[in-house]
Design goal:
Number of strands: 0
Radius of gyration: 20 Å
CATH superfamily: MFS general substrate transporter like domains
Oligomer: single chain
Helix content: over 70%
Distance between the termini: 23 Å
Low-confidence stretches: none
Amino acid sequence: MYPGIVALLLAYVLSQFYRAFLAVLTPVLQADLAVTAADLASASGWWFLAFAAMQIPIGESLDRWGPRITSAGLMAVGAGGALLFSQATAAFQIKLAMALIGVGCAPVLMASYYIFARSFAPALFGTLAGVTIGVGSLGNVASSLPLSAAVEAFGWRETVLGLAAITGAVAAAILVLVRDPPRLSGGHHGSLLDLLRMPTIWPILAMMAVCYTPLAGLRGLWVGPYFADVHGASQIKIGEISLWIGLAMVAGNFAYGPLDRWLGTRKWVIFGGNAVTLLCLTLLWWFAAAPPATATALLVAAGFFGASFPMVVAHGRAFFPPQMMGRGVTLLNFFGIAPIGLAQIATGRIHAGTEAVPVTAPFEAVFLFFAVTTAIGLAVYLLSQDRTD
């Protein structure tokens, strides 16, 4: 089982990489293909929307056929998307490639969570989930300064072509190494509607919708344009800032992992961390023209305290019956990912539609959007029922 988990971890590293690498590629793609920031925001949105759209069929597939075939087959589609990206000459091809990569990355985290939920003690789920995202977030780190250096050394097309080859190799490793948990007796009773009829799950779904959206949006796209336009940062400098944010997210995921066992609560761990993230977003909106060091510090803090995604999944998972675990965790993931795609498209339009005088104005609007939506999610989450294993 453990070699298979390692293969899925490698796939998740790639998933984290792909969702964030446009922030670093934005300047070179704008120069080479004449695409706009709004085009790339839309392309990022396509990744997340394709990823989210696959969650429901993936949940059914995990429960019926297991994580091995589900993950390996779709990861191969992601390799094809990366190949298309490396040959793109127009904005539409970038968008289509990002959608295919999103399809490929869609099953890998939930496949790992499915194995954890079925094969390990329930009390360990939060820790294992946090460690998985913490290790996987190294992909987020790789999409910062290392990606900038690779693009400078080899060119963006050659770099992405190499990524396509790596993605295909990881798909093959999953097919060979992953072992499915034993099948449950008694069939796969229940449906997605049965999960949605559970009143306890809705406040958690509201939290899922906002716990990762600001980080994914800012780290995955807006960090690059913000520091380039407002602070005149170079490609390498943007990579360095993205690296610090990525490292903070890695540290945050590891920090969240055991807190539910140590403190005896999931709800208030999640609420407290996201309240700090909301404060950071509000300060970014209010002080968008602050010195680069201040803006970086606020984004790093948001990255650390906002890394609650695995803990929110653990909170929701505690309410699902074993025979519906695949559909349950992918339902949570759908609500965690779909809003990111919508937010990327929305913030792209907000940025394009905001008068750029002063130069901070479009980014103030983006920061305010993320702050308001996070505040709404936190308010609804107050209605949730706490549960630990």
